[in-house]
Design a protein that fits this description.
The structure holds 2 protein chains of 2 kinds. Chain A is mainly alpha-helical. Chain A has 4 helices and 2 strands. Chain B has a single domain, classed as 434 Repressor (Amino-terminal Domain), CATH 1.10.260. In chain B, helix 2 (16-22) crosses helix 3. The relative contact order of chain B is 0.23. The A-B interface holds A 1, 93-100, 102-103, 154, 157-159 and B 20, 24-29, 31-33, 37-38, 40-41, 44.
């Protein structure tokens, strides 16, 4: 049985490198350089954006389809983390057969469900500005949940 | 449905890894079938039967609850 939309197994190590690398760098920068690296402060094109949190040279007003001066530290690590996560999730296993395809599907269903149960609870218990953190981290939870669940099932079924 | 893969494997004296390699599936698949956690597709059942040189019915057996 062939699962659609899967990449070659060669992409998996690349995915792990990007995924773990960007996560570690993210932690490192958020602890030691909370304002982002000066090198990553630059003019970038935006569809709609402002340098709300930073001190960019073009001011804080919202710009549509234009340039803003802002730190792209979060942008960069966020993109690399998502890219790495997607490469892990959508790479074939070394032997991708019908049972592995079933584990994959079960893991998707499980992570989708847990993801929304988690969001439901957080909606209930987190209020105000703190909810912003929920929104930030919830963008990545489905990737993390799937990766954990799928690899746990692969490991469990080996023994 | 139960199966006699483990017994057939013991008769041929091959490991899960070997059998997985021969019929090009993962070791997890062999393991899950032997533990009755997974019912294989018809294609896979036929491949296993062909390798052991027996009819499918001798390796895969229906149970009362099926």
């Amino acid at each position: 049985m062939e699962t659609k939309f899967l990449l070659s197994n060669k992409f998996k190590p690349v995915g792990w490198l990007l995924f773990l690398g960007s996560a570690l760098l993210w932690v490192y920068f958020s602890l030691l350089h909370p304002d982002g690296l000066p090198v990553l402060q630059m003019d970038v094109f935006t569809i709609a954006g402002s340098d709300f949190f930073g001190n960019g040279s073009r001011g804080r007003e919202t710009v549509y389809f234009g340039l803003i001066n802002t730190s792209i530290t979060e942008t960069l690590f966020g993109l690399l983390f998502i890219l790495g996560g997607l490469l892990i999730v959508f790479s074939r296993e070394k032997v991708e057969d019908e049972f592995i395809a079933r584990l994959r599907l079960q893991s998707f269903q499980w992570s989708f469900m847990i993801n929304y149960i988690l969001l439901f609870l957080l909606f209930f218990f987190i209020h105000g500005m703190e909810f912003l953190f929920v929104m930030v981290y919830h963008m990545f939870t489905i990737l993390i949940l799937f990766i954990c669940r799928f690899h746990y099932l692969l490991y469990k079924n080996k023994n | 449905m139960k199966n006699t893969i483990k017994i057939e494997r013991a008769v041929k004296d091959i490991t899960q890894e070997d059998l997985a390699h021969i019929i090009s599936v993962s070791r997890q698949t062999i393991n899950a079938m032997e533990k009755n956690k997974y019912v294989p597709s018809t294609v896979l059942a036929l491949k296993i039967a062909r390798y052991f040189g027996k009819p499918v019915e001798e390796i895969f057996i229906l149970e009362e609850t099926d």
